[in-house]
Amino acid sequence: MRLTFIGTSHGVPEPHRRCSSYLLETGGKYYVIDMGTQTIEDLRRLGVPIDDVRLVICTHPHGDHTNGVISFVDLVNWYFKSASPTVLLPDEALIPPLRAWIAANQSGELRDGIALGLVREGVTYEDENLKITAVRNQHCRNAFSFFVEAEGKRILFTGDLRHPTVDFPAPAFELECDLILCELAHFSADDCIPVFDRTKAKKILHTHVSPRWHESLARQMAAKHPYEYGAVQDGLELKL
């Protein structure tokens, strides 16, 4: 399983960081978690066949996690017509505007083959390659964290949280995780460590990093932890 970090910024893009988007490759297929940037352009740049993109799924409705969905669906609708992705959105209110946008700029309906649906609590997506389990958190209305299981590995994408002491996904304290990818926009790294220490994670990395927490992050990166600890940048690739 390969994880590519397409966008790792906080709520706004920075000169060297785009908004949240992560690409998983497993079983020869591709799965995108969050599309806060124009991820379709990166898929093309990386040589990813659009026909092999199985899923786009978003953790919550905020634009820095969903804005790229419009351009993706737009191009799949009229140009990459042999592609048949599933697009799972976290809030039902997002679906009618998406359909209306496509109809308005193309004078047509969303074609057959593009499946629009909702993120549901529990196992929200499963195919022969991976399984995604959604756990609600308190960041906003209809916000989720995702446990992704593939190739015998487990990754937790926390998405945005209210605070790790309030709504960190409880299964992480019982389940072994090969990687926890945790936001760092709404609280400091210092706030996270006591919670992380209760998990069964092998590796914990921060994404969605706000500049206001750089000092806290640097302090914790210099400390010793019982798991591999750090932060990610746009363009990083990990093999799990």
Structure at a glance:
The protein is α/β, with parallel strands linked by helices and 240 residues long.
Describe the structure.
The protein is α/β, with parallel strands linked by helices. It has a single domain, classed as Ribonuclease Z/Hydroxyacylglutathione hydrolase-like (Metallo-beta-lactamase, Chain A, 4-Layer Sandwich). Helix content is about 25%, strand content about 35%. It contains seven helices and 16 strands. It has helices at about 40-45, 65, 70-80, 95-105, 165, 190-195, 215-220, and strands at about 1-5, 20-25, 30-35, 55, 85-90, 115-120, 120-125, 130-135, 145-150, 155, 175, 180-185, 200, 205-210, 230, 235-240. The strands form three sheets. It has a seven-stranded mixed sheet with strand order 6-5-4-3-2-1-16. Strand 7 (about 120-125) and strand 8 form a beta hairpin. The longest helix has 12 residues, at about 95-105. It is globular.
Q: Into how many domains do the coordinates divide?
A: 1
Strand order of the largest sheet: 6-5-4-3-2-1-16
Strand count: 16
Order of helices and strands: EEEHEHHEHEEEEEHEEHEEHEE
State the CATH class. Answer: Alpha Beta
Task: Walk me through the topology.
Elements: E1 2-7, E2 21-26, E3 29-35, H1 39-45, E4 53-57, H2 63-66, H3 68-78, E5 86-89, H4 95-106, E6 115-118, E7 122-126, E8 130-137, E9 143-150, E10 153-157, H5 164-167, E11 176-177, E12 179-184, H6 189-196, E13 200-201, E14 203-209, H7 214-222, E15 228-231, E16 237-239
Parallel strand pairs: 3-4, 4-5, 5-6, 10-12, 11-13, 12-14, 14-15
Antiparallel strand pairs: 1-2, 1-16, 2-3, 7-8, 8-9, 9-10
Helix pairs in contact: 3-4
